[in-house]
Amino acid sequence: MEPRKLALVGIGKIARDQHIPSLNASKDWELVATVSRHAQVDGIEAFEDIETMLAARPDIDVISLCVPPAPRFAYAAAALNANRHVMLEKPPGATLSECHVLGRMAEKAGRSIYATWHSREAAMVDAARVWLSDKQVHRVEMQWKEDVRYWHPGQDWVFDPGGMGVFDPGINGLSILTKILPKSLHITSATLDFPENRQTPIAAQLAFHYPGASGSFAELDWLQQGDPVWSIFVETDAGVLTLENGGARMLIDGEEIKSAEDALALQGEYPRLYARMNDLVAKGESEMDLRPMYLVADAFAIGERRTKPAFEW
Ligand code: NAP
């Protein structure tokens, strides 16, 4: 079968680190155009604005959006209005309302839309979900700590309105929690630490309600020094499940578990996202699970604001 033609929009860090290598390695996809105001990819037709690309290349069926969340809605709406399938980087938008609008637009147009959550594709996340499916959960803890200066050097948009601050990485952990836990959890209180010169939090503490559990919480910190900590602990009636390295490692009561699905897991997060997008388009389906975003929106809705020292790069 011919590969599907795809245009990539927003040629920045994640497009270069993950999307382009994944597309180049796949038989299912062909990257045929880019849209970016400043950047280009060698050998690929480049456009500076999406309307021009959509008009010039009616043959491109799928548009994958790697711009930051705040400007993403306009690009996604333009693509859907032009009757194209759309793949969204995480978080799928800046607000829940705009994500729902996009979902309805895609449904009306009969096109696929996919709100991706790359951390859900980490090697051991599916195994964790299966293991937890018949367990009684007693307590949930999430630690999501990294150095923003190392992971997002100079990316001021993360501190602008709509950039989500520490929830930009933290929503990855929340996307795993909402996938692996058998029941819904919700936020009961939060504290959000805002640098005095920035619009989004640099740290956050969340308390969760989970049916039958107590003392569940998350700690998010963007001023972590040294190695990042991307860990989840779930205490159950049958032992403690630990996910480390953002879902790449799983331990039960301290014993590492290897996945039976190693071949698939080894493909990596982004090849799995593109495999899923290919599947959705082939079946005429969409996937817009917004539960991680609800948790972030709720943290902003009920969080207590604390002012912290100014942040400079
Ligand atoms: P980035 O490099 O700062 O931005 C991506 C590209 O988007 C930029 O190169 C820029 O290209 C374009 N852009 C930036 N601001 C824009 C604006 N206001 N309007 C239109 N275009 C704009 O960001 P990134 O790190 O790749 O992150 C992009 C998305 O991927 C985010 O949602 C992030 O959460 C997600 N993500 C990032 C990582 C990571 O490690 N960085 C990992 C996983 C997911 P032009 O200036 O050329 O238009």
TrEMBL record:
<dbReference type="GO" id="GO:0000166">
    <property type="term" value="F:nucleotide binding"/>
</dbReference>
<feature type="domain" description="Gfo/Idh/MocA-like oxidoreductase N-terminal">
    <location>
        <begin position="5"/>
        <end position="112"/>
    </location>
</feature>
<dbReference type="InterPro" id="IPR036291">
    <property type="entry name" value="NAD(P)-bd_dom_sf"/>
</dbReference>
<protein>
    <submittedName>
        <fullName>D-galactose 1-dehydrogenase</fullName>
    </submittedName>
</protein>
<dbReference type="InterPro" id="IPR000683">
    <property type="entry name" value="Gfo/Idh/MocA-like_OxRdtase_N"/>
</dbReference>
<dbReference type="InterPro" id="IPR050463">
    <property type="entry name" value="Gfo/Idh/MocA_oxidrdct_glycsds"/>
</dbReference>
<dbReference type="Pfam" id="PF01408">
    <property type="entry name" value="GFO_IDH_MocA"/>
</dbReference>
